[in-house]
């Protein structure tokens, strides 16, 4: 996540952003996708760094405009921070649908 409230929170691995785009969303070749262990480790690292960053924000930081490309959805940094847990929950819901389609047991 780059340039949030004037600070780079974490640098993603080289090539990560290009690997996971709308254009590549239909790719099902495991060789072209990250493995689960690496993706979960990156998720944990990003979450940890994001939580650390959020604790440093002052009320005036939260009131700052969000990065330009995100302002249509979140006008301020505070709005962005509020979205983080909801965004994760949305993806967990998507994973649950995939698991059910694959006949896997319900975990949550």
What does this structure look like?
With 108 residues, the protein is mostly helical. It has one domain (16-101). 49% of the residues lie in helices and 0% in strands. It has helices at 16-19, 36-55, 59-62, 77-101. The protein is globular and about 50 Å long. The two termini are 28 Å apart. The model has no long low-confidence stretch (mean pLDDT 87).
Shape: globular
Secondary structure: number of strands: 0
**Could you list the spans in which at least 5 consecutive residues all have pLDDT below 50?**
none
Oligomer: single chain
Number of domain modules: 1
Question: What is the distance, rounded to the nearest whole angstrom, between the alpha carbons of the first and last residues?
Answer: 28 Å
Q: How do you describe this structure in short?
A:
With 108 residues, this protein is mainly alpha-helical.
Task: Provide key terms for this protein.
108 residues; mainly alpha; 49% helix
Q: Topology, please?
A:
Elements: H1 16-19, H2 36-55, H3 59-62, H4 77-101
């Amino acid at each position: 996540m780059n340039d949030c409230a004037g600070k780079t929170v974490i640098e993603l691995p080289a090539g990560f952003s290009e690997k996971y785009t709308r254009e590549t969303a239909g790719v099902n070749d495991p060789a072209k996708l990250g493995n689960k262990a690496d993706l979960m480790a990156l998720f944990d690292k990003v979450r940890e760094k994001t939580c650390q960053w959020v604790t440093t924000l002052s009320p005036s930081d939260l009131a700052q405009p969000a990065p330009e490309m995100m302002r249509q959805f979140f006008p301020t940094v505070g709005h962005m921070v509020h979205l983080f847990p909801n965004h994760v929950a949305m993806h967990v819901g998507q994973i649950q649908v995939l698991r059910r389609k694959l006949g896997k047991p319900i975990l949550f």
